[in-house]
Amino acid sequence: MTPLWNVIGKRWVGYLLSALLIVPGVVALVVNAGAGQGALNWGVDFTGGNYLQVRPNRAASIGEVRTVVDRFASGRSIIQLSDPDVFIRTRPLTPEERRGLLAGLRQAFGGITVLREDEVGPTIGEELRNAAIFGIVIGLVLQLVYITVRFKSVRYAVAADVALLHDMLVVIGIFALTRKEVNGSFVAVLLTILGYSINDKIVLYDRIRENIALRTREAFDRLVNRSLLESLVRSLNTSVTVALSIAAVYFFGGVTIRDLAFGLTVGVVISTYSSVFTAGALMVDWHLWSERRSGHARQPEPALAAPVLTSPSSASAASGGTAGTSDRVAGGGRRRRSRRR
Amino acid sequence: MRTRVGLRLLGILVIVLVAVQVALHPVGLSGRVPTIVSPALRINQGLDLRGGSMLVLEGQDTSTVKATPEAVEAAMSVIERRIDQLGVVEPTIQRQGPNRIIIELPGIDDPDRAIRLIGKTALLEFVDTGTQPLPRGARWGADGKTVTLPEAIPQQTTPPGQPGARTLSLAKKVILTGSDLESAQANINQGAGPGELYVVGFKFRGPAAKTFENYTAANVGKHLTIVLDGEVITSPVIRDRITGGSGQISGGFESIEEARDLAVLLRGGALPIPMKLVENRTVGPQLGRDSIEASLRASWIALTAVGLFMTLYYGLPGALAVLALGLYLLFTLAALAALRATLTLPGIAGLVLSVGLAVDANVIIFERMKEELRSGKSLRAAIETGWHRALNAIVDSNVTAVIAAAILFVLGSGPIRGFAVTLSIGVMISMFTAITVTRAFVDAAALIGLGPMLVRVAGRPRS
Question: Do B251 and B261 share a domain, yes or no?
């Protein structure tokens, strides 16, 4: 056997990394919400409002545009410039205000080309928000059901769903931190991650399932670790190809699609990460937890091996080791626990 | 073995030919003899690619009429008549939910005009105001009992009824309405004053024409006020009995277009309920063109990058997988054409994403093959087991991906729905190409003596 990279033995590193990824995002969500600017930077799709992408006939500065916009759209408007285009986001405008704004812009900049215009009523935004939440919940539930049926075990399904939630939290957190605009396409991002990430987890779980069927004498954490390494190349290669394609869309696909591509790229990277560091670790910890609850009697001996469960000191011992040392640590962990009982 | 591989390749070739025909239509089959026509991608483009407007209108309850599905249905047919006058190619109108209408106007030049025309209730009323003339812009309250005069049309800051708002108590006695009209058209009134140059001529239908004649005969010297959606257009004096049921509306139009628009509205009839615009998504033709260009470029770059990666990493099997990937794209385009699905900009992103996912199945298989070869199996056995054992994982992972896409399809609208469509079609077809097509290619390669290459590259020792 080739020397193992003991991902599972050092799974606390993964949990720590996940916490480092999630906590800042959640803090940003709370802080943003507290500051009254919305937990996320909601776009017009969610809040309702008018969005304009125009190309003025002469170069315009943000200040100039703002003067025109403020004349017709009172309240907080957001104006961005991406030469040569101007992006304007306002509260929902009445037909008169909207017409006035367009006419005002035409007059101020010697004519404009309207590249894109979105007008969304407030009720539509609210509906989208509800539909998004509903869709994600339904998505998680359906994945739960499907995996439970296919793997004949709730454990795989729940662990996969937790990993999915993890991925979505990270992506939402990154959008909260970067204050990137969140629009209808963000819902597509979340649901695609849901579909893509689960794909990755299933390949891993399929391997675990297969290995369990093959060798029952191996400790569960070692078995998961081995399965993980066996499917690692595939997981990385797939991520590379998917990331390559989506990155191409991000860089060359034009402004309109950039937000979607950004979210998808982040999602692909995160779901690969969680396939390696989270999905398997969750299975192992659940296994150990349920074992502790049911006591030793029913389980076969070797399945009890667990390096980092009892104290951080054993984990740090494991972190330096090769497969051989982690073996010993695993044994040590078992002995320590049996002593305690 | 040899014949079976040959049959499979033949089958794939047939599918390829069919797909080319469906997607590109290079052979015209409409005549008696098939003809060669210039191939063109026969896929509907979404509004975000070809430019155009998507409008969502919502029926509003009033004190007298409720926005029932029937009323919305009736409004739809009125709107349909109005859209016919806009000269839009292939507009679509659909009902959504109990009280909404979705209108798609591809390639429209002037979305503003469309919005003005489509959303207007266009209830024309001929009102008996006795001896009282009303200025243009005066408005009747919703109860039809008071008129607010235009100088005093309340600003948003001052509620009506405050000092400064001049109102008039005047019951709205409606003689005839727009639904009594037979025809209406815009005219230019030669030699008239600047405000009266453009007019809308109209003609009442039979019985209404009689009513009109009787009324005008009995009310010479009084004012007949013409009101559109509660707002006075003009309030002329009846000079004489008007026979024949014809007349004209003047004084309200600053351009011939305005007069023409009103004529269009009157011909189409009034909406039975007011409709409010709740969503408008317009993409200008220029942005659409830019998007197509940019997304095509992105697709080529993505494909090349993925192809290079696969070939460099997996060698010959990788190259065969890339070939299968090319077929995958062709099949997906054909499926989109056959299903008359609409390709949107996010849809293209979905397509590109699914290219990455399509490769995934092959990666799973090749990794399996490598393992089997490393464990000392023969090439044929390794191919066999590699495919067989990878199948479970591939099916499971793809089904879950389709579940997510299906939800997106149900929930999403317009462009996002296009994303769900290409993603799910792509995932399903990729299973076929990755499993069946690549397998046939690899088998064929093994048969024609490329076995050593397959083994060498696939079995490259792990570092």
Answer: yes
Chain A: residue nearest B364 by CA? Answer: A234
* Residue of chain B nearest A196, judged by CA positions: B401
C-beta atoms of A245 and B355 within 8 A:
yes
* Domain end marker among B231, B250, B282: B282
CB-facing half-sphere around the CA of B243: CA atoms within 13 A: 0
For residue A54, what are the domain limits?
49-120
Q: Average per-residue pLDDT in chain B? A: 82
CA pair distance A48, A34, nearest whole angstrom: 21
Asked if B309 lies within 8 A of A240 by C-beta distance, the reply is yes
**B27 alpha-carbon distance from chain centroid:** 29
pLDDT at A216: 67
Answer yes or no: is B51 within a domain.
no
Q: Is A113 on the interface with B (CB under 8 A)?
A: yes
- If asked whether residues B272 and B126 sit together in one domain, one would say yes
Name the domain count of chain B: 2
Judging contacts by C-beta atoms under 8 Å, the chain A residues touching residue B357 are 196, 199, 238, 242
Q: How is residue A275 annotated by DSSP?
A: I
Of B291, B298, B313, the CB nearest to A237: B313
Q: What pTM was estimated for this model as a whole?
A: 0.77
CA distance B132 to B83: 37
> What are the helix and strand counts (H, E) for chain A?
12, 6
Strand, coil or helix: what is B111? Answer: helix
- Give the C-alpha separation, B252 to B195, whole Å: 7
**Distances A334 to A223, A298, A325 between C-alpha atoms, Å:** 17, 16, 14
For residue A274, the model assigns a pLDDT of 92
Q: Show residues of chain B in contact with A199, CB under 8 Å.
A: 357, 360, 397-398, 400-401
Question: Which residues in B lie closer than 8 A to residue A248 (C-beta atoms)?
Answer: 298-299, 301-302, 305, 352
Inter-chain residue contact A187 with B408, CB threshold 8 Å: yes
CATH number at residue B397: 1.20.1640.10
Report chain A residues whose CB lies below 8 A from the CB of B426. none
DSSP codes joined into one string, B6-39: HHHHHHHHHHHHHHHHHHH--EE-SSSS-EE---
ipTM confidence score: 0.74
Q: Is B49 inside any structural domain?
A: no
Q: Which chain A residue has the Cα nearest residue B287?
A: A115
Question: What integer pLDDT is reported at residue A10 of this predicted model?
Answer: 83
Residue B353: its chain A contacts at CB < 8 A? 192, 196, 242, 245-246, 264
Closest CA of chain B from A336, distance in Å: 37
Cα–Cα distance list, A119 to A45, B96, B283 (Å):
9, 18, 12
Q: Give the three-state DSSP class for B53.
A: strand
pLDDT tens-digit profile of B333-354? 899 899 888 888 888 888 887 8
Q: Is A251 on the interface with B (CB under 8 A)?
A: yes
Residues B76 and B297: beta-carbon distance below 8 Å: no
Interior angle at CA A89, CA A83 and CA A92, nearest 5: 155
Question: Which of B282, B298, B348 lies nearest to residue A116, judging by beta carbons?
Answer: B282
Collect all residues of chain B within an 8 Å Cβ-Cβ radius of residue A150.
396
**Closest CA relative to residue B356, chosen from A335, A242, A312, A193:** A242
Whether A335 shows a pLDDT value over 60: the answer reads no
B434 within some domain: yes
Smallest Cβ–Cβ distance between B400 and the set A114, A195, A256 belongs to: A195
pLDDT single digits (tens) B223-244: 888 888 888 888 888 888 888 8
Q: Does A149 touch chain B (CB under 8 A)?
A: no
Domain boundary among B249, B282, B315: B282
Query: How is residue A9 written in tokens?
Result: 């033995």
